[in-house]
Queue: 3 jobs
Job 1
Amino acid sequence: MTLRGNNTQGAAQPPVPEAGAAPSPQTARPRILLADSGRISRGAVAESVRQQFDVREVADAEAAWQAVLLDASIRIVIAEVAAPSIRGFDLLARLRASKVQRIREMPAIALLERVNAADSQRVVALEATELVVGEPPAQDAASELLSRVRVLVDLANTRDALVESRTELESARTVDPDTELLTLPAFDKQVDKLLSYARRALLDLALICIRVELTMSHNEAWDGEIEQRMKLVGRALSASIRLEDLATRSDKTEFCVATQNNGMTDMLRFAARLRKVLENVDAAGPGVEVWTCIGVATLSEELRRGAVDLRAQAQRRAQMAQSSRSRRIMLGAVESGKAVGFDPRGETGSMDVNLALALIGSGRSAEVVAHLPRLLEQLNPLIRLIRQQQNVGASNPTPSAEREQ
């Protein structure tokens, strides 16, 4: 398309905004990228577009590509496609092959000087949004181009509004309004991020699964009532975890919490505290008894685990505790892969024998070493009793022992 006008090459042009910059408050107009050999920018088409839009001009396909990459405010690309100096066909191909959705879906108008079947077919094959063909004096082409640019800008704005609404909707879906806990997909996604950080920082992460059973004061409870009670339990859990912890309702009667593991002792105390909160008489409403079964899985058991695998392991252990009606928090033994239990009802804030045995069974003997003096104090009465019984047995041999002598 030959575009001629009364403008001269030396006519004053609006300043070109810096790459990536938003339109200034004075212009506040949609930004159009114009890739041409100089003829369009001096013609009627460019002038008509420039009157209503913020135009950025480049001289070839490579400059246009860099502008699109760096300037996210560009709404539409207009390019001469047949001009050898512009390589507009190459630009179209790169736009549609981009891995960036914004660039891949960007409206692109191809300009042809004259009707050419081969070039027109190539433009269609490269998925240009619009094709404008014009000959001198090109006034009709200018009007047609301006009209199409307006439509495409409106469509781009509508698309962006839909994307923004979808993003906001997805964000709203990350939290369950009934329990104020993360939805399960959002929980797994966030836990994966925490796992990546924990691996880099050489930290441990624990996933605590809590299975809940409700006992009503009356004999029969309809499903709707159980659901409402579970929502109350979820809210109680949401209010009891720390800001840095993550929690979700992973099943109808099950909740999961992810927490940074600063040592098995603290983590087990934390799990025991959650149990105490949920089994409070008000957690599910007055007159409702809450019973919890807890399973724990940690990143240090298997560093390659993702969020879903870690959660599944904790869920299996919670189910094991539930099937055996155990009040013990079920852990995993690193070497055997079998679950061992810990009863957290010992002395708060100290290492007791039950916890020490659970840690040793889980392959975490190193965490017990620092508490050996305290453990020895606890075990001394038992050791003395054992020695006394051994001495009594030695001084009073059994009849069978006497016959052997």
Job 2
Amino acid sequence: MQRLFNIISELCSFIISHCTEDFFVRYSCVSTGETQRVEDLVRSVLPPLFRSEGVVHTLSQDDCTEDFYESLCTLIENLKSNQDFFAVMGLTQILDEAIESALKAKIAEFQIDDFSVVLNTNRETTGIGLLPRCSCWWERKRRLSHVYNRMDNFLFNLLLLENSILGELIDRHFFLPKTLFPGFAKKKSLKIAATPLRLSRDFEVEPFDENQVQYFKISYNKSDFEKENELVFQKILDAAKNEGDIIVFPEMLGNPEMADFIGEKIKKLASENPELAQKIPSLIVLPSFWEKKRNTVTILDKFGNVLCRQSKQNPFRAELDGKGYLEGIVSSLVVNIFHFEGIGRIAILICKDFLTTKYMEQLMRCFKLTLIIVPSFSTGSYDFRQSFDLCAHDDCNVVWINTCAAFEPGKEANFENIGYVRKRISRSEDESQKLCKMPICPTAFKGECRQDCIFYETIGAV
């Protein structure tokens, strides 16, 4: 169906490039008569697309004959030449519905791959990328169609990626296998574990000048990596015993040996204690590590394998002795998106990436994100809380975890809570469940840390 994916991409590109926002406003209230006109027109030329009155046929590879494609292309050319935008839109919707089964089969194929590229091969010329769209239990079917007037409001099986929204960013997609969240289909919920990890920070902030700008870099002190890594592994075991599906650690508290250490420990656990190994969180978002002008999070799966590494894209601006310094990172421009049926699409936005509203909304709108994970090292939570509502407005839940290591004397009020889960809830649920708080341990303000803090929150269907 490669050719069909390319054709759909061309149809989407035609509508987006030729129609104003007002078109989508009017099409959202298309009349019954107009819908019938388009259906009759498409049926007369492409009978394989319909099996009965008003019911779109599930298109198979065998249906996509040369005659089918020839008739489809002729119809499209006629519609374009007549500027029949309503019919072009209607035809695109019919094709989106007809390939639902084919897209589910594609998801199964993609789950075997390390990472996946878009379905169509003409993304560069059309400016459109297409992927199967995984459903989400807390996402409304017509997500924000009353707020945003866009082409993808009218497609339900295809995820439409517009290069004009993505800009210079490079997207990589990971369709996670069913075996990674084995119980999700039954329980329809995710249990999130998040930990601030520890109070101590084993690094120094070093300022430097470069190209007329003041920057800072992170220099880690020589420390006992094994002890740090063992603490992280114990947190993972704690989450396993409490049946957490995802565990999230803060920013900056990683080290160069951590990913290998944790991966090996998990694989060793599989032979020593297979029952506990089965409960290891499906996704492990390790603490980020600052190295060679990159601030990077490593994401492991429950089997100890590295799924990918996500680098921070937007530098943090710090005040040192009353002067401004930029975090001396170089953006990789790579954005990793995880897809899973029922969960939707997950992205990791490291601290300032989430606070950079334009960047955050760019990803949310382009990929229709349903869960954002935010590892942080911050002296306050206020700005993050302000951004949570933007995500909830888009049916996107957020997990934000800070660390006590970021605490500075005199800023106790900023650390009342060390993390939050902002989630979409149903109208019948208690409003207080929208924002779930993770209160800081009171002893942290006294410089005492037992290193045993870990929080749990469940995100479920709405």
Job 3
Amino acid sequence: MNFRFATAILSVFLLSTFAKAQYTVHKMVSVGYTYQNQSFGEVGGKLLFLKNDDVIYRLGASALMGSANSQFAIMPKLQADVLLNFQKDVDFYHSYYFLMGAEGTNKYVAPKIGVSLFGILDLTGGYAFPIGDLNGKEMKGLNVNFTLNIPTVFIHDMFK
């Protein structure tokens, strides 16, 4: 019985490595503003995973730069987002998305919700739970993000 179970698990694992997902990946450069008990500028990159226009997944990494207690600080930030829009039969197809996700730094973790215009311009809000302090200031409470995501294809075509 144990041999059959182990063989079945191993077969599923090996067969799943040969299966290919039909997601396309797009690279994006992101710049934005984050309010988390202080104002921070944000610069980073994101990967957009797209199978169809109804559900879009994004993973990103960036740096938050700002002042905390009159000292310059930089925090690394990781984030994951899911963009949803199941609207059908409209003239301007999928112009906005409902966004939900989470972001985390070495000082706080924040779930968030918001809206995204074309998947390019994001406005999100959430609540941050502190992990540590930044220059003596605890990063907790209201979290607001305004982000512009620029596809690298657009940047490449602009300089041709």
